[in-house]
Amino acid sequence: MTSTSPTPTDAPPVPAGAADAPAQAVPGKRFASPFAVQTPPGAEGWHSMYPYYALLCDERREFDDGKFWFFDGMHNPEPLYPFDTIMTENWWVAVSQMSTRVWPIPLAGGIDHRIINGYLYISPNAVTDADEIAQRAQEFTVRAGHYYENWDEIYEQWVAKATDCIERLKAIRFAPLPGMEPADRVFEHRGLYSSYDLLKSYGELITNLFEMGSYHFEMLNLGYGAYLTFREFCQTAFPGITDQTIASMVSGIDIMLFRPDDEVRALAELAVELELTDVLLTEEDPSSALAALAALPGGARWLESFEQAKDPWFWFSTGAGYQHSDRAWIDDLRLPFTALRGYITRLLAGEDIRRPLEEILAERVRVTDEYRSYLPTDADRESFDGLVALARQVFPFVENHNFYVEHWHHSMFFSKVRELGEVFVAHGFFDDREDIFYLHRNEIYSALYDLNIGWATGTEARGVTYWRPEIERRRRIREVLKAHPPQPALGVPPDYITEPLTVMLWGITQESVQEWLGSEGRDGGELRGVAASAGRATGRARVIVDPEQLHEVQDGDILVCRITAPSWAPVFSRLSAAVSDVGGIMAHTAIVCREYGLPAVVGTGFATTSLRTGQLIEVDGNTGVVHVVEDVPA
């Protein structure tokens, strides 16, 4: 990560599967200025929902207008709810401090954020001064080297810290303030009462989120960095090698994000064994199915296994885990039960429902051995062996952290916020607990104190009359913003993109940016993106912009989405390929498709706005191209 990868003394033969030439720069072209984006009629005043530091302003107009901004549809595909900005504000600091103040990564700075018409745009900063790069590289080598040399031990410590954080989150409770403070509290002589406990619990909730946010990125940049270094070596040593070929050399590692789907498969096998399939196949409503099973022989045993699987494996968000609307399996059992019925049907037909892990591992060995044989010297082979070993070692954290953070922790966090929302409903501030998400976290502090004042004095709190009309105003504004999709990019195309997450997770590279710039004059029947998972498939497009639509997926469909979530894994067994707007070679769409052997093209920028459900499309995961074969009426 701090120096150029070794270059072979003799150029090796270019292996099969070489990539097409990268997109050429479009001279003089830029994206629209972020300051030129107009507020849709009816959304006036949207700025008031968000903190001042996340907005464009005249004071930094020259700076913001000269930067490259891209829409973060991966984490926030819709206009942000005011409360949900806690997630973007969380990682705004947590990601950036790792690259700038903790490691620091020699060529990468932090990632700036701006909210424009309610949508989150981000912009990576690069370090270009040679002296600063050299100084950072020296510091980085010592700090990162310590983590790489002790990776397994530090990872074990990380799991303990993350689990403890989740257990403390689980213990936080919210309840309406009592009509009279209970006598037992008085006689404890604490001198602290329900009003104090309410504020304290909310403070603990918020700091718990920021604590987990810091853990989230403790090792992640290093994980991506190790992979990027291996990727750089391969691109230098094997000109034209594709990203999915490089990725195949670290595929086949059993990660936690497949565990929930594996649990559903196991429940399907148990249902077949216990002859409970009739109920599970005929009762589409999960609650009805569970109630019916309780009365059947063997039902109690299946239900016991089901309960064991639920916690923690059903704390699995149907989105990226950054929006409260990304409900978890544990909140809505329809998705896992749909998958369960699908697996039961396949088992009864005599099919094997296991993931093709053995084939993936065999391919990993074959590809690794093949490319290693192209290296001309022992020194090159030694470098290659060390880099691929490190990439495989760090890969489990790169993926497993997602289950602890975005799924288990964040899903539980939002459930605690809803619990607090019920307190406001009980005290007449809101009509529905979901209304709490229209308040920024700092506004909730004020609302809680207002609630305490009313409780303490006996005078009706101002919030009883203040918040309902304000929430309704914000609701209307957000609906207008939601009806106006954002542009994928704004500002000036960058000369360099060096921030690891930007490249590996979002798939933003010089090539992808130039593809977006050049898309205006391109045939509307073709999209280009990152070739993320090898293979070619033709099928009907199924455009999914909301997890609710997953129930519409049919066998053989090609999934077209902004980005997938790991919890969508059960539907992948029904797909023939996948296409996404955003994402890089290490995005979840790419990883899941490789593990399921499905062709995938990610980071197209425009898939969900260019393609329509029902179109016959061809996905070429080898070249990163998507073609419309047969159109359907709009």
Q: What would the average pLDDT be, to the nearest integer? A: 90
Proportion of strand residues? 5-15%
Put simply, the count of helices is 22
The structure class reads alpha+beta
In percent, how helical is the residue content? 40-55%
Pfam family, one: PEP-utilizers
Region (Disordered): 1-25
Domain PEP-utilising enzyme mobile: 554-624
InterPro entries: PEP-util_enz_mobile_dom (IPR008279), PEP_Utilizing_Enz (IPR051549), Phosphohistidine_dom_sf (IPR036637)
Please characterize this protein's 3D structure.
It is a single chain. The chain has 22 helices and twelve strands. The chain has a domain at 523-630: Phosphohistidine domain (Glucose Oxidase, domain 1, 3-Layer(bba) Sandwich), CATH 3.50.30. The chain has helices at residues 61-65, 85-102, 130-149, 151-171, 183-187, 194-216, 220-237, 243-248, 259-273, 277-282, 286-293, 299-313, 334-348, 357-373, 378-426, 441-457, 463-482, 500-504, 510-517, 569-572, 588-596, 607-610; strands spanning 68-71, 108-116, 119-126, 489-491, 526-528, 530-533, 536-544, 558-561, 577-580, 600-602, 616-620, 625-630. Helix 20 (569-572) links the parallel strand 8 (558-561) and strand 9 (577-580). It has 634 residues and is α+β, with helices and mostly antiparallel strands. It is 49% helix and 10% strand. Helix 2 (85-102) packs across helix 6 (194-216), helix 4 runs antiparallel to helix 6 (194-216) and helix 6 runs antiparallel to helix 16. The protein has an eight-stranded mixed sheet with strand order 5-12-11-7-8-9-10-6, with helices on one face. Residues 554-624 form the PEP-utilising enzyme mobile domain. This is Pyruvate,water dikinase. Residues 16-25 have a biased composition (Low complexity).
